[in-house]
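ok so I'm stuck.
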Amino acid sequence: MFKQITNGCVNLVNRWLPDAFLFAVILTFVVFIGALVFTGQGPVDVLANWGSNKSFWGLLTFSMQMVLILVLGGAMATAKPFQRFLGSIAGLATTPRSAIIITVLISGICMFFNWGFGLIAGALLAKEIARRVKVDYRLIIASSYSAFSIWHGGISGSIPLSVAGPGVVEKMSGGLLHGVIPVTETIFHPMNLIIEGVMLVAIALVCAAMHPDEENTVLVDPSLLATEEEKVHPKKVPADSIEQSKIIWGLLCIMCFAYIVYNFAKYGFNLSLNSVNFIFLSVGLLLHGNLRNYVDAIVENAKGSASIIIQFPFYAGIMGIMISHAPGGQSLAQMISNFFVSISTPNTYPLFTYLSAGIVNFFVPSGGGQWAVQGPIVMPGAFHVGASAALSAQALAYGDAWTNMIQPFWALPALGVAGLSARDIMGYCIIVLIVCAIVTIPGLYLWAILF
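replied:
not stuck anymore, here's the structure
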């Protein structure tokens, strides 16, 4: 019965899921029509709110931060020391199910530290295991991506990092709330760690259970597993020697790590998107051994960000429509969020925040973008309902990550590494979506009533 449901989801997605960019365009049309019908705006007003500098081009800074997380994290994952580490882990897999469990757990650990790093490291590990074990290639890539469900509870989560910054909570709550929400109340809260751990184990077991029997297993195309030869840079001219200089590389590494120590000594262990990027840049530099190798890694990993670069403005435009409204009216995002606020109690507010975030994320698949859309609604709502502001922010983060399983936007980099399309993996991800809700909803309720 379970295999039949899985096969049904896979077949449905293969028939109906369009290309990821076309998916963004279709969502644009859907939201455009929704704004016309429900917000009282005319077509010219909606068009203006879609294409303005504040919407379509309004997330360029954040887009660059996201691209850097992906590229810098990917550059770390492709360093030879880390690849040797992946090879040693891949050697632990002996059966298809053990291969999938190992892939999910290692990908999840990497996702917790950095989502960009986890996306690329997970796909590389899946490919390495596929070289050694006869495992369904579509499923093992889907399994590596499924670990993305936990990223927003990790240390690169944009919402918990944002509320840890000065003035953010006050701004988002309209002055109703003050101070900062430290990561000890979100990322490193015991309940967050428990939910993340249980979710990861559940995903691993369910993905392993989805593996087809031997005659229905789709093995990888051998051409996708071809190993690239390591580039050799001869020292023909003085510039070549400078690029590969251990002295320059070493001095830069010392400078980078010295700043990291200084930053934490002065400001404490308060991570932000910029500090996470700085850490992974520094570690990537160290692992690659010289500047020439590191530049090559950056160039190679930047290719995976192409789809993100073109789609981010369209999703920013969707955000612009989602938060726009006629004078005295409500936006689409406000309607969704306010509905859940109106039926909430202090203990159920995080649950409804999670559900509303899951819906909005389908149209705004960006943690930072979703925070910009829903933060000004969720934070005042927490104050008026009497719910925990920290838990409400974390519930919003969980909801953002939750429906990424049926939103192909963030799967694109991993799919680029794997040589697959979104259709190949999204059917399996629907099952993971259900599993994550089963774990997260009771977890949020326990967090609300116990703390």
